[in-house]
Design the sequence.
């Protein structure tokens, strides 16, 4: 709850001081894209480790589900933002 309050206070101060201009939004967008790519690599490595050490078991299907959800959300957000342009 405290984090939500701090977020809104910080957001209102940032708007007054123009912290959230186009340059900052571009940097944040690129950072999120790089983090997305890193998460994809981490998930693939974890998936391979699970297959090697644990075999085809619940953890394999759990990681596969997370991987599918990860990529479906990428598809959904890509379609959404492309439709806005």
Sequence:
């Amino acid at each position: 709850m405290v984090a939500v309050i701090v977020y809104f206070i910080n957001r209102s101060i940032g708007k007054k001081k123009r912290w959230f201009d186009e340059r900052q939004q571009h940097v944040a967008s690129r950072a999120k894209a790089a983090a997305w790519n890193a998460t994809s690599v981490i998930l693939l490595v974890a998936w391979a480790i699970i297959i090697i050490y644990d075999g085809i078991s619940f953890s394999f299907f759990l990681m596969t589900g997370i991987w599918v959800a990860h990529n479906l959300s990428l598809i959904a957000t890509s379609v959404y933002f492309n439709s806005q342009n």
